[in-house]
Write a structure and sequence with these properties.
Length: 108
C-alpha cells in the first residue's frame, strides 16, 4: 500500500480557545487532493513545521488582521463602535478578547 501524503493547499479559517494551561490556536486546513468537506482543524505547531505551510499560515494571519482593521475603520467612520461591530457582523465566535490576543501573539 502506498502512503497518503498530506499537503496543505490553503488555510481557510482559525479558532482560538483557552485550555487548562494556555490558549490554543488551530487552523482549518484545506488539504491538497481532498474536498472542502474534508478540511480538518490542526494545531498551529503541527502545521508550521513545513516552511511552505508556515508561509501560508503567516499570509492567512496577515490577511485576517488586514480585513479586521479595514472593518474597524469602516464602521468607526460611520460612528459605530469599530471592534464591537466587527465582532457582531463576522467574528462573533472569535470575540474581541481573542482578536486582541491574536494580534499580540502574531506581532500585529
Amino acid at each position: 500500500m502506498s502512503e497518503v501524503q498530506f499537503i496543505v493547499e490553503s488555510i481557510v479559517d482559525f479558532r482560538e480557545y483557552d485550555s487548562d494551561d494556555d490558549a490554543v490556536i488551530e487552523y482549518k486546513v484545506k488539504w491538497k487532493g481532498f474536498s472542502d468537506k474534508q478540511c480538518t482543524w490542526e494545531p498551529r505547531e503541527s502545521i508550521c513545521e513545513d516552511g511552505g505551510t508556515k508561509k501560508k499560515v503567516h499570509q492567512f494571519d496577515k490577511d485576517f488582521m488586514e480585513k479586521n482593521q479595514y472593518k474597524i475603520q469602516k464602521y468607526s467612520s460611520r460612528g459605530l463602535s469599530g471592534l464591537e461591530k466587527v465582532n457582531k457582523c463576522n467574528y462573533s465566535s472569535i470575540g474581541e478578547r481573542n482578536i486582541e490576543k491574536f494580534s499580540q501573539r502574531h506581532g500585529m
